[in-house]
Amino acid sequence: MKVFFVTFGCKVNCYETECIARTFTENGFTVSDTAEGCDVIVINSCTVTSASDKKVKQSLRKLRHENPDSVIVLTGCYPQAFEEEAKKLTEADIITGTRDRSEIVKLTLNALGSRERKQITDLHCYTGHEAFEKMSYSSSERKTRGFIKIEDGCNQFCSYCIIPYARGRIRSKPLEDIISEVNGLVSNGYQEIVLVGINLAFYGAEAGLTLTDAVEAVSRVQGVKRIRLGSLEPEMISGDDLLRLKNIESFCPQFHLSLQSGCDRTLKAMNRKYNTAEYTRLVSSIRNIFPDAAVTTDVMVGFPGETEEDFEESMEFVKKTAFSKIHVFPYSPRSGTKAAAMPDQINGSIKNERAARMTELGHELEREFLKAQVGKTVPVLFEKENCTSFHRGYSPNYTLVKIKREPSIKSLRNSIFYVKIKESMNGFCIGEKVPAEPKE
Question: Beta strands of 178-304 (E only): which ranges?
Answer without folding.
Answer: 192-197, 226-229, 254-256, 294-301
